[in-house]
Amino acid sequence: MKKTSNRLHSLFAALAALILAAALAVPAFAVEGGFADLYYRMFDDAEVLTEDEDNELEDALEELSLRQSFDVTIATIESMESVGADSMEQFADDLYDYCQYGYGPDMDGVLLLARFENTTFGILKTALLVGVRYLFCTLLMAAIYGIMGYVIVFVFTPAFLLGMGLCAMLCSFLMLRILYLIGGDPDAVHEEYDHDKN
Length: 198
Hints:
Radius of gyration: 24 Å
Order of helices and strands: HEHEHHEHHHH
Helix content: 55-70%
Number of helices: 8
Distance between the termini: 34 Å
Shape: elongated
C-alpha cells in the first residue's frame, strides 16, 4: 500500500506540475459555455514527475474535467520564492485567473497547488516523525551506540578506534531497511547517476 501511495503521490505531483507549466507556457483562450481552448491542466514547475507520469496525469485530468464539466487542474512549484508570490493562495488565484481556468461563464473548477520545498524545520519534522514511526529501530540504534559507549568507557578504551565505525555500519543496515519500508529505493539514485554518466 505504501508503494501505491508513493506512486499516487508522484503521479499527483506530476499532474500538478504539468498544469502549471502549460498554464505559463501556452496562452489560454476562453470559450463561452465551456473550457478554455489552449492550456494544459498539469503544470510541473517543480519537475517532480517524469514525462510519462506527466502525460498520464494530464490525460486523467482531461477526462475527469470533461466528464464532470468542472475544470480540474494541478500545479507544482519548488518554493514561493521561485514564483515570486507571497502566499500559496495568492499564487493559486493569480494562476487560475491568468490561465483562464474554469468551465462555463462562472469559470467553475479547482486548482490543486503543491509546493515541494525542503526547509530546515521540515527536514527536522520529517526526521522526528520517521524516528517515532519506526521507534523500535530508533531505540535499537541508540542501544548500539550506548553499548559501544559503555564498552569504550568502562571495558576497553581502544575499542574507540573501530567501535564507532562498527556502530555506524550496523545503524546503516537499519536505516536502509527503514528507507525501503517508507517507499524509498536507495539504489535508484545510483542507477540514475550511472545512467546520466553514460
